[in-house]
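Consider the tokenized backbone below.
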């Protein structure tokens, strides 16, 4: 079984969120399941700088006359041996800033071209007969940035391999001016309601949903939610139409997230050395975040994009009620300017009790998850979420809104669930500051019960969130599509 995995991010080379983590961990799990996988990714500066030894497989200029010189490089991901195919096109990818935005936070004006080219390469590699000696049985596309691959395949003459698209977040759709339809090599007669058109725009994600042979998303609950007007982002009708081809497969988490051997932590621990390990990590985190060093005060952690989706405003509005309790808050993230500004104000209003780091800092994220007593995820919607699973593995019960993958992974700490060793955290239903504050107060009451708290922590730490199960589900889809064993 051979699979081409097309993605715009892969940790540790480039990452803005969960897509980068999944694009690293899932292909590795697929390899362990016997799949011969190649990961196709753009050659951003951060990718090229850490690529190591690479071999040029071919040139790519012939794919379209509008693109400048480009090559397809082959390398391996450091420390894992995962095969990478890198689209080296400096005019499109060798830029400052992030993979999608300028240094000052604006989307690149030619993102349609940048990721349209990635899709062209993915589709070209998925044609039959194959252009290279290695050819896939299935092409697996991820999010809008790879969404044109199935459409390009369907609008070419000749046979092609079946396709899967995974929706990591339906809210990000890749919608562009319709002038890009023909510029990207697609026929104008594909621009209609049953094709590429979405409210007068060309939609990369709608193209993938329309033309892929199978559609997956990253949790069972989210697969149901996106078929509703509330969370369907305008695509719920199409998703209901394709519901027979849509399945939710819960993400796993990488084995590197393990408190027993995490190099980012000042003290390693497991469920047998829990109290001492958590105490040491908490003390270091309090110092690092400018919080008063108090081993007994409950410390709440949050690591997130600072956006409306993530419910950061709910936390800010609940903060006066929460700060009436003896607790501390450590926040790490970046995002919307208004959220960042209000968090700075909160840190000033509650010195020694609220610590805010407005940045992306991977090692610090590990220390916040390990050193906190509770982990907050008040998301309005959450396709899967990984941080709540990291938190459980690190003995930090999460407080989450009951949505998407949060609802699929966190078992609310009722008396019965705790007694039956099923409880792993605290959930709330409505996206309101009052419901969030009430869930935190329930958590604080349980925190005061040392025996119950230790049981809650250990139950979460022992949950199996490995990628083995998810990889088996994807292999089943690949085999059904390709007829390959």
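A designed sequence for it:
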């Amino acid at each position: 079984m051979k699979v081409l995995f097309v993605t715009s991010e892969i940790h540790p080379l480039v990452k803005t969120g969960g897509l980068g983590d999944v694009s690293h961990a899932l292909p590795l799990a697929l390899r362990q399941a016997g799949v011969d996988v190649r990961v196709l990714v753009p050659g951003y500066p951060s990718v090229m700088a850490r690529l190591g030894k690479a071999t040029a497989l071919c040139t790519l200029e012939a794919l379209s006359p509008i693109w400048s010189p480009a090559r397809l490089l082959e390398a391996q991901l450091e420390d894992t041996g995962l095969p990478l195919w890198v689209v080296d096109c400096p005019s499109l990818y060798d830029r400052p800033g992030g993979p999608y935005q300028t240094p000052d936070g604006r989307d690149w004006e030619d993102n349609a071209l940048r990721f349209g080219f990635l899709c062209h390469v993915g589709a070209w590699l998925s044609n039959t007969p194959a252009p290279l000696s290695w050819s896939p049985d299935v092409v697996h596309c991820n999010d809008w940035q790879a969404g044109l691959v199935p459409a390009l395949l369907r609008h070419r003459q000749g046979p092609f391999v079946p396709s899967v698209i995974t929706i990591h977040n339906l809210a990000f759709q890749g919608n562009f001016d319709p002038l890009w339809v023909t510029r990207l090599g697609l026929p104008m007669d594909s621009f209609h309601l049953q094709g590429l058109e979405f409210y007068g725009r060309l939609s990369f994600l709608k193209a993938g949903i329309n033309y892929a042979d199978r559609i997956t998303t990253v949790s069972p609950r989210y697969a149901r939610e996106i078929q509703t007007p509330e969370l369907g982002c305008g695509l719920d009708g199409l998703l209901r139409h394709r519901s027979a081809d849509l399945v939710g497969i819960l993400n796993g988490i990488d084995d590197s997230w393990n408190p027993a051997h995490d190099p980012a932590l000042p003290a390693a621990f497991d469920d047998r050395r829990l109290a001492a390990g958590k105490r040491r990590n908490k003390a270091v985190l309090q110092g690092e975040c400018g919080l008063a060093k108090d081993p007994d005060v409950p410390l709440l952690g949050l690591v997130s994009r600072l956006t409306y989706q993530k419910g950061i405003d709910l936390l800010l509005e609940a903060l006066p009620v929460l700060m009436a309790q003896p607790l501390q808050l450590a926040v790490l993230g970046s995002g919307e300017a208004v959220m960042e500004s209000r968090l700075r104000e909160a840190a000033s209003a509650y010195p020694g009790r609220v610590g805010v780091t407005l940045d992306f800092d991977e090692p610090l994220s590990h220390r916040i998850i390990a050193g906190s007593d509770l982990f907050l995820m008040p998301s309005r919607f959450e396709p899967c979420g990984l941080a709540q699973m990291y938190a459980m593995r690190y003995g930090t019960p999460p407080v989450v809104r009951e949505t998407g993958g949060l609802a699929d992974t966190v078992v609310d700490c009722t008396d019965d669930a705790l007694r039956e060793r099923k409880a792993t955290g605290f959930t709330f239903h409505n996206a309101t500051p009052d419901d969030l504050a009430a869930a935190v107060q329930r958590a604080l009451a349980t925190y005061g019960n040392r025996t119950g708290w230790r049981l809650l922590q250990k139950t979460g730490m022992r949950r199996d969130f490995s990628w083995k199960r998810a990889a088996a589900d994807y292999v089943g889809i690949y085999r059904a599509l390709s007829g390959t064993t």
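The chain has a mean pLDDT of 95.
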